[in-house]
Write a structure and sequence with these properties.
Blueprint (H helix, E strand, L loop, with lengths): L2 H14 L10 E2 L10 E4 L5 E4 L1 H9 L5 E3 L5 H5 L12 E4 L3 H13 L4 E4 L15 E4 L6 E4 L4 E5 L4 H9 L3 E2 L10 H7 L6 H4 L6 E7 L5 E5 L4 H7 L8 E8 L1 E2 L3 E10 L3 H14 L4 E9 L5 E9 L3 H12 L6 E2 L2 E4 H5 L11 E9 L4 H13 L5 E6 L23 E9 L5 H15 L19 H5 L3 H11 L18
Parallel strand pairs: 1-4, 5-7, 6-7
Antiparallel strand pairs: 2-3, 4-5, 8-9, 9-13, 10-14, 11-12, 11-13, 15-17, 15-18, 15-19, 16-17, 16-21, 20-22, 21-22
The chain binds flavin-adenine dinucleotide (FAD).
């Protein structure tokens, strides 16, 4: 039996086995008598409700994974997400161990109209993978990756982290596009698009997906690919978490040299205008093998500089030639570009972006980096003066991303040369207002240079810009959402709101 057939057999078998015959999950609650208190919760529409303790207990009995309530051991750890600015308390956390658990969780949520958050890697910048008083469907234990080196594909569970995908694929000399921080989730990153060090060569992460196993809003199992459920497959590649819970992805892998030319390259603040002007012209002509993300940065000690994160994934001798002009624009204050294991490059920003700090990001796509855009970037960082890191970061687009038609997948912003975001990180809650004011004033300057935004950098203030982001794909997404999730069960995302029922 082929792997796919075996998985389909397992899926259909599980679907027909009465829940009582499956191994039970533990309901980790404080009561020792076995009785469960009623649970206060909230619906997707924001209505306060009370779930009967017996119903919650019955739900837990249908899961193989654990179910956590507010007073359960492990609840506080499980509810934490990457962005420490979001301190939310779900009514229930379902720690799913497989698609069968996910289906039970979705059915329970739908039956009770619960507010639902889906947690993959937990890196939502706006904290949308945790909710206040709703049901958190936690996929973090569904983190397996299996690589088939013959077919050059990876099967990746919906809660796996990028580091696991890179590691398993690289061990066999293979890779696909994954993001630049290894503790980010495959699920959220891929469904929203997926930029990374290999995206100009192989396309976005979503462009490398061959199939997705999904639990839809009815709690049904589906596989979406170019062969079946094509419309859904189109929407899942860029439409974010709007259409269901992805329990597994099948990725196309590509042979790569596991040692690539990459690392940091930094220039002094005085050289910022000349360096940036050169870079944006150079980036337009760069070969697909080059990924160069640039950031203008101010540190808490008031030091400012221009920093490049470089990865050249092709022939290294050729890479040296390609990179020579960039390294020679001015004298770098740091040049750490050297042959390095790709997995090391992929985790080189892990510490700088560690969990638990407060982060705030505003983002937009830049079609062409004009002189006015460059001046604005520099001006924003020149004027920055908060006691924390502030930066404008500009990952590169183009290459293979731009060779996919804008309507071929839901991800429409194929023509953008760059994706710019303003970012700050802090810890002291007393700084919340100052940070928010700084980001908003900086964004007011940068926004006119952008068109739409990357849905994986969504925050609540961006909802009105969603139709610009999806452009000509927006109405098709609304129709798809209306068809597959008319009650908007999956709303904690860059939400495509379904049409009102007639
Ligand atoms: C440190 C850091 C580095 C980043 N680097 C990059 C980068 O290099 N390239 C890039 O493109 N993006 C990058 N991002 C943005 C990233 O793509 C998004 O934050 C993405 O949502 C993270 O996915 P996750 O599974 O970790 O997040 P989660 O917080 O778990 O999920 C975010 C949203 O995705 C949906 N979701 C997640 N998993 C599933 C699933 N299995 N099924 C259905 N819906 C799901 C849900 O709607 C959820 O609200 C980065 C983010 C951070 C914080």
């Amino acid at each position: 039996m082929s792997v796919i057939k075996r998985r389909e057999f397992l899926r259909s078998t599980l679907a027909t086995v009465p829940a009582a015959m499956l191994p039970y999950g533990r309901l980790l609650a404080a009561t020792e008598s076995g009785a469960i208190n009623d649970v206060e919760a909230v619906t997707g529409a924001g209505k306060q409700i009370v779930l009967k303790g017996a119903d919650v207990k019955d739900f837990a009995a249908r899961l193989r994974g654990d179910v956590l309530l507010r007073d359960s051991a492990g609840y506080d750890t499980a509810r934490r997400v990457w962005n420490g600015a979001f301190d939310r308390h779900p009514a229930i956390i379902a720690r799913c161990t497989g698609a069968a658990d996910v289906a039970e969780a979705v059915k329970f949520a739908a039956a009770n109209q619960l507010l639902v958050a889906v947690r993959g890697g937990g890196h939502s910048l706006s904290g949308l993978s945790v909710c206040e008083k709703g049901l958190m469907i936690d996929l973090s234990q569904m983190n397996g990756v299996r690589v088939d080196p013959v077919r050059k594909v990876a099967f990746v569970e919906g809660g796996a982290l990028l580091g696991a995908l890179d590691r398993e694929a690289l061990a066999l000399g293979l890779a696909t596009t994954a993001g630049t921080v290894s503790h980010t989730g495959v699920g959220g990153l891929t469904l929203g698009g997926g930029f990374g060090r290999l995206c100009r060569r192989f396309g976005l992460a979503c462009d490398n997906v061959r199939g997705i196993d999904l639990v839809n809003a009815d709690g049904k199992f589906l596989n979406a690919s170019n062969q079946q459920n094509q419309d859904l497959f189109w929407g899942l590649r860029g439409g974010g978490g709007n259409f269901g819970v992805a329990t597994a992805f099948e990725f196309q892998l590509h042979p790569v040299d596991p040692i690539m030319l990459g690392g940091d390259l930094m220039f002094s603040w005085e050289d910022a205008p000349a360096v940036l002007k050169f870079f944006f012209d150079y980036a337009k002509e760069a070969p697909d093998e080059l990924n160069a993300d640039v950031a203008v940065v101010r540190l808490p000690n008031d030091q400012r500089f221009v920093s490049f994160d470089i990865c050249y994934s092709g022939d290294r001798a050729q890479g040296e030639k390609v990179l020579a002009p960039l390294r020679q624009i001015r004298k770098p204050i740091l040049d750490k570009i050297e042959p390095a294991p790709y997995v090391a490059l992929q985790s080189s920003s892990d510490v700088a972006t560690e969990h638990g700090h407060r982060y705030y990001i505003k983002a937009g796509f830049v079609q062409k980096a004009t002189p006015a855009f460059i001046d604005t970037m520099i001006g924003i960082v020149q004027d920055a003066n908060l006691p924390q890191v502030q930066a404008v970061s500009v990952p590169q687009g183009g290459g293979a991303i731009a060779r996919v038609k804008p309507n071929a997948t839901a991800f429409a912003q194929r023509a953008a040369d760059h994706n710019a975001f303003i970012f700050t990180r802090w810890d002291d809650p007393a700084q919340n207002e100052a940070v928010s004011a700084w980001i908003k004033s900086a964004w007011a300057k940068l926004e006119p240079h952008t068109h739409g935004f990357y849905v994986n950098e969504f925050n609540a203030e961006d909802a009105a810009r969603l139709s610009t982001t999806y452009g000509g794909n927006f109405s098709r997404l609304v129709d798809l959402k209306t068809k597959v999730d008319p009650d908007n069960l999956f709303r904690l995302n860059a939400n495509v709101v379904p049409k009102a029922r007639a």
